[in-house]
């Protein structure tokens, strides 16, 4: 298929998305190949709105099909927060440690049985001419009371995944990509990617 632009400057997301795309036979390009292009402001009220806004903008700016994701963590005891504000939970600096510390503070005193949460990812695909569609992926776990692990990013040091008996920060990227919200969403995007490929023939 034609080259596909991954609409993010987040190096951690690129580390996850590029191998997943290649495994699906997709040739990904990062935004580093387009230094004049900057992603739009993420001001949508849902993950889906933010993902499609980025995908459409980058597709128009680069002239190539674009894939964008918006993701975050949703904690049941907090009514789904931080949600779309996950990256900016503790402020505009997007500091992972500050975000995690704020989350721990919000959950202080909440028992383990009520610390359930899920990672959510919306992936949108667009061509320069039109939006193609949006898919979603989710993985459930719970929030621990302390950091565990040195890998991953975002809330991985607190997100405990019961089937592995570890946090996402304690497992390899390869293993994370087998079950993560982002990998599940990307697998569901295969039909959308095939649609783009067929239209480009």
Structure write-up:
This protein has helices at 11-23, 47-62, 96-106, 173-179, 181-188, 190-200, and strands spanning 4-6, 28-30, 66-75, 116-126, 131-143, 159-161, 166-167. It is an alpha/beta fold and 201 residues long. The protein has a single domain (4-200), classed as Maf protein. It has a seven-stranded mixed beta sheet.
Supply database-style keywords.
seven-stranded mixed beta sheet, 33% helix, alpha/beta
Q: Ranges with pLDDT <50 over ≥5 residues?
A: none
Number of strands: 7
**Widest sheet, order of strands:** 2-1-3-4-5-6-7
Number of helices: 6
Would you give the CATH topology?
Maf protein
CATH class call: Alpha Beta
> Which architecture does the CATH hierarchy give at level 2?
Alpha-Beta Complex
Q: What fraction of residues sit in β-strands?
A: 15-25%
**How confident is the prediction overall: mean pLDDT?**
91
Rg over CA atoms, rounded to whole Å, is 17 Å
Structural class: alpha/beta
Please trace the helix and strand order, writing H or E for each element. Answer: EHEHEHEEEEHHH
The N- and C-terminal alpha carbons lie at a distance of: 8 Å
| Overall 3D shape | globular
> In which range does the helix fraction lie?
25-40%
Largest sheet: 7 strands, mixed
Count of structural domains: 1
């Amino acid at each position: 298929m034609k080259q596909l632009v991954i609409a993010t400057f987040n190096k951690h997301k690129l580390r996850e998305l590029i191998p997943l795309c290649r495994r699906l036979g997709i040739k990904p390009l990062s935004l580093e190949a387009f230094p004049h292009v900057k992603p739009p402001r993420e001001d949508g009220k849902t993950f889906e709105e933010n993902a499609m806004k980025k995908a459409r903008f980058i597709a128009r700016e680069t002239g190539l099909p674009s894939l964008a994701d918006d993701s975050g963590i949703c904690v049941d005891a907090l009514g789904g927060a931080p949600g779309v504000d996950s990256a900016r939970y503790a402020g505009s600096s997007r500091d992972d440690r500050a975000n995690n510390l704020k989350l721990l503070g919000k959950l202080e005193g909440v028992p383990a049985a009520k610390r359930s949460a899920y990672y959510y990812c919306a992936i949108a695909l667009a061509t320069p001419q039109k939006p193609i569609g949006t898919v979603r992926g989710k993985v459930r776990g719970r929030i621990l009371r302390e950091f565990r692990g040195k890998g991953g990013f975002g809330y991985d040091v607190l997100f405990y995944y019961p089937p592995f008996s570890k946090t996402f920060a304690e497992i390899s990227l390869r293993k994370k990509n087998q079950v993560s919200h982002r990998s599940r969403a990307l697998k569901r995007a295969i039909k959308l990617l095939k649609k783009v490929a067929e239209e480009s023939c």
